[in-house]
Amino acid sequence: MRDHKKMYGIYLRASFLIAIGLIIAFLLTLPYAEPEPYKLKQEVVGIINEISMEIDKQIEPIDNTVRPKPQPAVIAGQNPDDGATTIDPTDYGENIIPTAPIGPDIEVIPYYKVEVKPQPISMPSPVYPPLAAKAGIEGKVVVKMLVDIDGGVIAVEVIKSSGNPMLDDSAIAAAKQSKFTPAKQRDKLVRVWVVRQIEFKLADG
């Protein structure tokens, strides 16, 4: 006759091993799913540019019906000329920006007083900073540009920050490359401030 008290430990260990074996057998019957390597979600980046000019709202109403078409983003490393957009002369909505004379010889005229207003010729697309795009950072920057007598931009100031210095710097860099037709007052070339709004927005999906 067996001593069940002595066999208890053996029975316990055997039961444990059998249970482990059943668990292993069950796991082996499950279908094998090969893990896929992590892939960074690629966002299609788009930048929307809007042009507006200074104007006295009491003298002339704002025209918000015409806006430049959205421009594709220029990814870092691409030729900046690829993102440049040539814009045909047209009328744009306008906002008042106070100005002050700069330089002793060339006068800065408020936009609403200028007889021959500057028209955008080339508006290069800003570069969406890769770190900002990867982090999902979006924002809108409003800058004012001082258009010189040759149509080039000689000064840029941020009048409404996006809240992110990377986006602000990119907007400033693009604004400096903008080109306009010269402004004239009484057949004299003058300088004038114009406003450009740039929105950095990641495409959905």
From TrEMBL:
GO cellular component: a single term: plasma membrane protein complex
One GO MF term attached to the UniProt entry: energy transducer activity
Subcellular location as annotated: Cell inner membrane
Bilayer-spanning residue ranges: 12-33
UniProtKB keywords: Cell inner membrane, Cell membrane, Membrane, Protein transport, Transmembrane, Transmembrane helix, Transport
Topology in the lipid bilayer: Single-pass membrane protein
Superkingdom of origin: Bacteria
NCBIfam families named among the record's database cross-references: tonB_Cterm (TIGR01352)
Family affiliation: Belongs to the TonB family.
Protein name from the UniProt record: Energy transducer TonB
Species in which this protein is naturally found: candidate division WOR-3 bacterium
